[in-house]
Amino acid sequence: MKKIVLAAIALVFSASIFAQAPQRGERREFKPEEMAKHQTDRMKKELNLTDEQYKSVYALFIKQGEEMKALHAKREQSQPETRREEMKKQREAMNAEMKKILTAEQYTKYEEMQKRLHQRGPGQGGPRGPHAGQGGNMPPRN
């Protein structure tokens, strides 16, 4: 009897965890603040940002996140070429601002970080598409 009760509790517990996790094909809600904090923390670690640089980079990522959120909201209404062009402009503006915030050495490392990100597979910060990330050395996503 005790085993049946424990099995039932485990079943309910595992079902509740599974129900909360995003299903395959679903996306988590995009929160610019979380993304900005994650990106800025990573940059602080890799580029050794000062506190002032950290604040500036965080604000820049918040701004970029809001712009991307707006772009995604209107994505149904625009053509893919238009969206790509808008994203390219945003990226160029972001890089120009980043160049103002970082030292020359930090900016060089930042560019290297960006290149590494774009070489990774889908869902891991890299290019997307039917063949993106194939043959890489990243483990499969769960």
Describe the structure.
This protein has helices spanning 2-20, 32-47, 51-73, 80-101, 104-119. It has 142 residues and is an all-alpha fold. α2 (32-47) runs antiparallel to α3 (51-73) and α3 runs antiparallel to α4 (80-101). The model is unreliable at 128-137 (pLDDT under 50).
Short characterization:
The chain is an all-alpha fold and 142 residues long. The protein has helices at 2-20, 32-47, 51-73, 80-101, 104-119. Residues 128-137 have low confidence and may be disordered.
What's the number of helices? 5
Low-confidence stretches: 128-137
The termini sit apart by: 35 Å
The geometry reads as extended
Topology (elements, then pairings):
Elements: H1 2-20, H2 32-47, H3 51-73, H4 80-101, H5 104-119
Could you list some keywords that capture this structure?
single chain, 142 residues, mainly alpha, 0% strand
